Amino acid sequence: xxxxxxxxxxxxxxxxxxxxxxxDTTTPAATVTWAAxxxxxxxxxxxxxxxxxxxxxADLQILSDNTLKYSILVNNLTAGDAITAAHIHLGNAGVSxxxxxxxxxxxxxxxxxxxxxLTAGQADTxxxxxxxxxxxxxxxxxxxxxxxxxxxxxxxxxxxxxxxxEVPSVTTTATxxxxxxxxxxxxxxxxxxxxxxxxxxxxxxAHIHSGxxxxxxxxxxxxxxxxxxxxxxKVLSLPVDNILYNSILNDMLYVNAHSTxxxxxxxRGQIR
Length: 272
Hints:
2 domains, four-stranded antiparallel β-sheet
């Protein structure tokens, strides 16, 4: 009888030991190692889709196992429009970049939710490089709303430029578009593209000037100095004193493009 009891005791002890061992090797639940709430807007798209004013918020989380959780809510989605896709793209606030991470989760009305398994390299890129979230719809195939992950966009404008806006006005077939984005980390992204320039003329400079639409004001910031600069995105780090940063947010400013034939300005557009 004693032998039987001893055998039973040993069996119970072995079972308890195995149970403890199994519990000790349980993989701990993944924890959040990085999170971002991304403000998105139609006006942050490059270029901004005409007539669209939608905004959105994207909540992103990277877990310790490199799972990316995402939840996007689009506000005031136009009746008849529908979300078709969402991605993370690589690129700064002034460019349209390539798709980096597709979101293949659930699209339901105005929301996109899901998870995607990242590589360690992808997780590191999202935490440290310039990238943005983009939502595409049937009415805005190139992108309806977007938002920078690396630094919030605080100012965005797509500005039509023409000769009539010059002071005094000039007669020209040329027109232009200035795309301006400024981020919270005090970087300015600006691109001016010119169309239908007269034969024999050539672009030379482009500046931001201070002044209302009725005056010819002084240069505040020069960003192009050669014909080859036009249609390229210039990235400028603004001074730490905040004077220019605050001026772009609040003051009467305009963009002016100059050419060899019209040194004082061929096309201009008002920022504010």
